[in-house]
């Protein structure tokens, strides 16, 4: 299957940080919107982030991935409404490193809807959900 990169999402709370690299099945579907509503429409690579010194000069997408590509995978849903059950999740086992300054810059981002005042993004994560019988597989032993 051919998946196209659609977007990067950063999620964080007071103590946890994660990068989602969102792809859609362009072989089967004409658009991201269509793919997001189908059971095999999306694949999201989740990368845990830990605070540490990490240079970030010229952008290279592979710099967003850790050295080890060991992962867990399961079928699940989007983390934001409409919460479609259309995602093949791929969570990398090893976190990547970003500096305290980079984390501070993420925390300084503002969000707003049309006509509303911009406000800091304090928490933009979804709490862990029950497995509900989902099988979680690992690429490693």
Describe the model.
With 141 residues, the chain is mostly beta strands. It has a domain at 1-54 and 83-111. Helices cover 9% and strands 38% of the residues. It is built from two helices and eight strands, in the order E-E-H-E-E-E-H-E-E-E. The strands form two sheets. A six-stranded mixed beta sheet has the order 1-2-3-5-4-8, with helices on one face. Strands 6-7 form a two-stranded antiparallel sheet. The mean pLDDT is 85.
What spatial form do the alpha-carbon principal axes imply? globular
What is the rounded distance between the termini?
Answer: 26 Å
Helix content, binned percent: under 10%
Strand order of the biggest β-sheet: 1-2-3-5-4-8
SSE pattern, N- to C-terminal: EEHEEEHEEE
In round numbers, the mean pLDDT is 85
**What percent strand?**
35-45%
Structural class estimated from helices and strands:
mainly beta
SS field, number of helical segments: 2
Number of strands: 8
Rg, nearest Å = 16 Å
Low-confidence stretches: none
Largest sheet composition: 6 strands, mixed
InterPro entries: CA_dom (IPR001148), CA_dom_sf (IPR036398), Carbonic_anhydrase_a-class (IPR023561)
Organism: Vombatus ursinus (Common wombat)
Subcellular location: Cytoplasm
GO cellular component, one term: cytoplasm
Helix/strand layout:
Layout: E1 3-12, E2 17-25, H1 32-35, E3 42-51, E4 71-76, E5 87-98, H2 100-107, E6 110-111, E7 119-120, E8 137-138
Parallel strand pairs: 3-5
Antiparallel strand pairs: 1-2, 2-3, 4-5, 4-8, 6-7
Keyword list:
mainly beta, two-stranded antiparallel ribbon, cytoplasm, Carbonic anhydrase 1, cyanamide hydratase activity, 141 residues, EC 4.2.1.1, six-stranded mixed β-sheet
